[in-house]
Amino acid sequence: MDAASRSSPATPSSPSSSTSSLTSPASSPIQSAAPCLGDALAADVCRAHEAPLGPDSLQDPLTGVRRRTMLIAGSACAAGSGFALEAQAQVPNPRPPASQEALMATSQVTLTVNGQTQTLSLDNRTSLLDALREHLRLTGTKKGCDHGQCGACTVLLDGRRINACLTLAVLHDGAQVTTIEGLGTPEKLHPLQAAFIKHDGYQCGYCTPGQICSATAVLDELKAGMPSHVTADLNVRPLLSADELRERMSGNICRCGAYSNIIDAITEVAGRPA
Ligand code: FES
Ligand code: FES
After folding, report:
1. By C-alpha distance, which of 216, 227, 214 is closest to 190?
2. Ligand 1 centre and the CA of 164: distance in Å?
3. Cβ(264)–Cβ(201) below 8 Å
4. Distance 123 CA to ligand 1 centre (A)
5. Quick one: which atom of ligand 1 is closest to the CA of 251?
6. pTM > 0.90: yes or no
7. Which of 130, 25, 17 is nearest to 63 (CA)?
8. Does residue 152 line the site of ligand 1, with CB under 6 A?
9. Is residue 251 in contact with ligand 1, taking CB distance under 6 Å?
10. Is there an atom of ligand 2 within 6 Å of 258 CB?
11. Domains of the chain: residue spans and CATH
12. Residuewise pLDDT in 10s, the chain (274 residues)
């Protein structure tokens, strides 16, 4: 027996009449299949579960529809809508939108890293830090915050220090980059590396490559007479004081708190007793 013939001639208060309205066929051929499926499910489920109305049935006095009937019908419709959404999601997207294609663009980038020329094919969004660590396997440069806040990723770019996590590699095509691996080797340490060891300028060592690269640039900045925020007189060469060093190294965070020993190490390399 089909759904229509099973529907009883309804009185306004009959639960069957409200149910039959749920089972009416779609009025248009382009109407979504999901509501129809939901309606049919709801009607069948309702018929299977309906019992004669008792005095304590939760029946709407205006429509005559019982609360349980409405709940079941609502659930079935929601499930039907879910099928439709899933079917929509499975329609393959033939090609990404133009904005996504632009994001996925790659570029050839040539860098001279620690004296060696390297040409890389990089996603344009690759940071200099990731180019060094992930593409050139120079993992001496550390990723701490990846947000320009800790200084662990400091390298020298054309002789000046920079947070490698905050700049894109494609912006530096043709640049010279020096990482901790290019400053010294275990056999021939850079003077700052030796001084950090001598003065216990580290504990876990995670910040140390960035500290040493930064300190290398600080000594060059002082030699060049570049003032800092704490330089009292901008017309004279800045002093090599602990205050100057602390200010200039303030972008390099050490979670182990080896700051005073780091200052001692830099001071000694700068030519003054620590
Ligand atoms: S990792 Fe670059 S500043 Fe922290
Ligand atoms: S030595 Fe551990 S963070 Fe600096």
Report:
1. 216
2. 7
3. yes
4. 20
5. 3
6. no
7. 17
8. yes
9. no
10. yes
11. 3-89 (no CATH), 104-183 (3.10.20.30), 185-274 (1.10.150.120)
12. 444 444 443 433 433 333 333 334 444 433 444 444 444 444 444 444 444 444 444 555 555 555 555 555 555 545 545 545 555 556 666 676 777 776 679 999 999 999 999 999 999 999 999 999 999 999 999 999 999 999 999 999 999 999 999 999 999 999 999 999 999 999 999 999 999 999 999 999 999 999 999 999 999 999 999 999 999 888 888 888 999 999 999 999 999 999 999 999 999 999 876 5
Sign of the CA dihedral with 157 first, then 115, 175, and 136 last: negative
Mean pLDDT score of the chain:
78
DSSP letter (8 states) at residue 117: E
- Tokens representing residue 106 in the block: 């790659």
**Distance between CA 261 and CA 243 in Å, rounded?**
14
